[in-house]
Amino acid sequence: MKFGRVDNPGELDLSLPQDHSDTYKILESSSSAKLNIYVGCAKWNKKDLKGFYPKGVKDELEYYATQFNSIELNATHYRIFGEHIVSRWREKTGDRFRFFPKVVNSISHYKRLKGVESKLEEFILPIRAFEEKLGMIFLQLRDDFKPKYFHRVEHFLEIWPQDLPLAIEIRQTDWYNDETVANRTYQLFEKFNIANIITDTAGRRDLLHMRLTTPTAFVRFVGANHETDYSRLDEWINRIKTWKQHGLENLYFFIHQNVEKESPFLSAYFIEKLNNEIGTSLSPPIKK
Looking at beta carbons, which pairs linking 46-50 to residues 24 or more positions away fall under 8 Å? Predict the structure, then answer.
């Protein structure tokens, strides 16, 4: 992932900001005592995850699913796959594995959520073939998708199938910097039970709104292939520990890198540290 890439991450303040005050209201309204955690990468192909697969591995997804419990499925952003392909992916993974598909770009980027009813049906039909292995679908809006399009988001949520969990990533800073717009957006997400994605990348610290709209934290972490990646993850561990104490129900944490081949190994660090700090028992990927 090249989004938010910088050449000098060591010279920047990459600390996490304080939580939005309403985040704790959301967490404390939770009635669940259990925290479900899914950690994964964005891709499973050998080309991007070079060095991750042992020699002789024939099926990349099948092996990947033995090392991680989830995948942030960016492939669905670029094309709509048929039900037979989705079913094949589902069958190659274990019972506890979950897929987190990204909404196709014809809806989010080309049509900008306008007049997408038929395309949404076309996208959703094969996605349902994930069945019980569907984690949460996520919608990423364009960098230039401004608050003037608020009603498009509202209409999209009105036509979205209510039985399918959804998260939204907003990348245009005015949605967060304008308090009136921000509060209106948060209220909309709460109304429709939409997870507000937090994007942590070195070059776009303005996206760290730290405002949860459901008891689910969906985090897209983008490392810089730099030593600061580890101290940034350490901060996330501490924040997650706090959220857990306040009632966090689900953590969906996906690790990217500017050079993606490092993502599995950075993920292993995160999982091991998470296990040590909050008592989880996730299996980290095997380091080659």
Answer: 48/260, 48/261, 49/260, 49/261, 49/263, 49/264, 50/261
Q: Read off the pLDDT of each residue in 227-243 and give the average, rounded to a whole number.
A: 97
CA distance 283 to 69: 9
Examine the pLDDT at 213 and tell me if it is beyond 80: yes
CA pair distance 140, 102, nearest whole angstrom: 7
Q: Domain residue spans in the chain?
A: 33-278
Neighbours of 119 (CB within 10 A): 16
The CATH topology of domain 33-278 is: TIM Barrel (3.20.20)
Mean pLDDT of 179-204: 97
Task: Say what the pTM is.
Answer: 0.97
Looking at residues 45-67, what average pLDDT do you find?
A: 93
How would you write the chain as a 3-class SS string? CCCCCCCCHHHCCCCCCCCCHHHHHHHHCCCCCCCEEEEEECCCCCCCCCCCCCCCCCCHHHHHHHHCCEEEEHHHHCCCCCHHHHHHHHHCCCCCCEEEEECCHHHHHHCCCCCCHHHHHHHHHHHHHHHHHECCEEEECCCCCCHHHHHHHHHHHHHCCCCCCEEEECCCCHHHHCHHHHHHHHHHHHHCCCEECEEEECCCHHHCCCCCCCCEEEEEEEECCCCHHHHHHHHHHHHHHHHHHHCCCEEEEEEEECCHHHHHHHHHHHHHHHHHHHCCCCCCCCCC
pLDDT at 215 over 80: yes
For residue 288, pLDDT over 80 is answered with no
